[in-house]
Amino acid sequence: MSEQASSFPTTQHADDTSISHWHMRAVRADLLFRATDAPVRAAIEDILRDELFEPKEGLTAVGSARLSYDRAHFMVTQLRARSVDVAQALRALFLLHELVAPVDGTACTVLAIHFCLAIGSIVAMGQDKPELRSILAELLEMRSVGVFLATELGYGNSVMSLETTARYDRETDEFILNSPSAKSLKFMPNTAFPAPKIAVVMAKLLSEGRDCGVFPFVVRLRDVEGQLLPGISVTPLSEKPAYALDNGITAFKNVRILRNHWLSGPESEINEHGKFHSRIASRRGRFLAAMDRVQTGRVCFTSAAVALLRSATWIATRYASQRLVSAPNGRDVPILGYRNVQADLFRALAEAYALTFAVRELQDSFVQSSHDSHTFNLVAIFKATVTERVGELLPKLRERCGAVGMLSTNRIIDYWVYIQGIITAEGDNQLMLLKIGRSLLDTPDGADPADVPPTFDGSDPRSLLELARYRELRLRRLLRQQIAFSRGHCRDPLVIWNQNVSGVMELARAFGTRLITEKYYEAHTCLDANVRDLTLPLFQLWAMNEVTTHAAWFLAEGCISHNTYRALPEQTEHLLGKIESSLDVLLDGLGVSNESLRAPIADDYLQHYEKLFASGS
Fold first, then answer.
1. Does the predicted model carry a pTM greater than 0.70?
2. I need a labelling partner for 148 at 20 to 30 A (CA). Which of 177, 196, 257, 355 fits?
3. From CA 106, how far away is CA 240, in angstroms rounded?
4. Bridge-partner residues for 276, per DSSP?
5. Is the pLDDT at 280 greater than 60, yes or no?
6. Buried b (16+ CB within 10 A) or exposed e, 197-217
7. Do the bridges between strand 145-149 and strand 197-207 make them parallel or antiparallel, or are there none, so unpaired?
8. Mind listing the pLDDT tens digit for each residue in 1-20?
9. Which helix (H) or strand (E) holds 446?
10. What single-letter DSSP state applies at residue 29?
């Protein structure tokens, strides 16, 4: 048991605690975290202990951005020195995001764009062109930062309709990049900070007056001194609280691009006569191929989101274990001893376990096959569902820390700001839900909900799984019936869609909940019997929360009785007590350390602030 974990009071016998910690470390190595990742994890954690990652206060927005870029560059150079290749090893890339995100969200985003979108696009679409090898080497060594420019001022989720053009000039065998309108301005990429930068720019390819579709092009934005190259304009956007990413508005005017800097992929070409040809028949198909690396980014950001929840839960619970308040009997007790505080903290703990199991399944599926439809849906629904759930829990964890939870050095408030960016990045969550919901409706699946609804039994983990499956199938059937009714009374597609859009998103959320429930249940059943008993109350608490969230629906469907509903609060209270008795072991299972987080309230917060006051600064 780590020294940090041992500070928590527990009602377990000392020998039992030692055994439990041993079992939980096995869980942490095999389920929550992979034992095979241990060397890479150790390398990244060692780098994060460097003084460069110490919290810095009083910085300007530019100073904060510079610090995050310095940290990202330091991380890359140190990993290369340790022969850790995150560009080619997906699991190492996922782990990088999980460990960096809780320490510096801006640096994590810089690394995500650099590796997933910039380097990833060049590797996937560049066909190993000799002309791109020096650029790729420059990016791999992070002598230049890779950025990705897709979203435009007038086109967000409809990027396929973007207006930036790359016109092929047959005479010079080059492309000419232009931003022809205000709507075509590239919006929000991290282009404002003056560091050497190479961009992958999404633009509409024009050849012989023909719109050939959207493709990526490699464009050097800033030179070795960080100065913009001719024809490129960048205006910084306004600041964001606690998130120093240098978002800007970027425009191009007659910027010439070498032919070999067109990332055509193996399917498309322009011959010596200037004729465009592609084995991908539709412009939409070409666009989807060009945007493929966004999928990797979604997995990385989803992994980072769960890491934020694990860290925030760990920090808040450790603080609650030492923050004293007056109890009705006149004694001073930690606020963690109150059930209302436990309700929020232990719910977050249960969710952290559930979402970690889910994201491991997501990562495994993506590594095995990143292009099949099942994995595509898995990426989209977990990105939307996981980040939405984390975004709902972080404010509660901040609230339970009181005033100190507002301080950036204690991390949680910064996590909440960062999760807002993740929710919007790589496809807005509602868009993801709508795509998945529509896909579920269109899938010719013959599965139907059971004629007799399953009933919830809080003592049986499998009963939640049956409820989650029933709810998804039942919502799909009801939605199909409602859409058929709408079509029978209206011919306007927009009206029909608006009448059912909420149901589509609810179906998608039910699909995500069912998948998370399955992964939680599967992981739970694979545990050693002793650990299964230890973690069962967490699973049961998670199940109670899921049922309570949709209690009205389950009541209406006959899945729970009125008596069952009335008993939920009492059963929840009982589970909170059981979790409290083994909390230090369960918290240790999250694998979080303050050596890299450096959150004052996660250690002896009184000693920290006493020293701060004595120092006068």
1. yes
2. 355
3. 11
4. 270
5. yes
6. bbbbbbbbbbbeeeebbbbbb
7. parallel
8. 233 333 444 444 445 555 56
9. none
10. I
